[in-house]
Amino acid sequence: MATGVIVGDDVSFAFNEFKLQRGDFKLRYFIYSIENKKTIVIEKQGERSKTYDDFVADLPENDCRYGLIDLEFETDDGRPTSKIVFISWNPDTASVRPKMLYSGSKEAIKSVLTGVGIHINATDYSELDLEASILPVVKKFA
Questions:
Q1: Among 61, 96, 108, 127, which is least packed, fewest CB within 10 Å?
Q2: pTM as predicted
Q3: What is the C-alpha to C-alpha distance for residues 97 and 119, in angstroms, rounded to an integer?
Q4: Which domains, ranges and CATH numbers included, belong to the chain?
């Protein structure tokens, strides 16, 4: 909250429905942006049929975003499972102001997304690589 950015009212409701996969929120992911340097809002939603690659493709190459994805994977012992993962996308190629705004506002959105235990910071596409970067972190919580 150091930046004064607040979380939009619909973000909390949508997240709680998403966790339970209820109603219109049977989705794969959300991408959040900061609107007018004041409010965190839902920018995009990914249908349940979308993949992790679709999620990454929806992140802008040169601007910051927050993302939340219901990631399905197999544990090391072969069990199918899923985890909700929060990703802070803060690319090195973004301008300094948005990087500072998103970094300073991250706690505001994390406080609304209660129960999400996996938080990942990514600054370039190699840090979003599913096999090399994301799954090794997520599997620690499986």
A1: 96
A2: 0.95
A3: 22
A4: 6-141 (3.40.20.10)
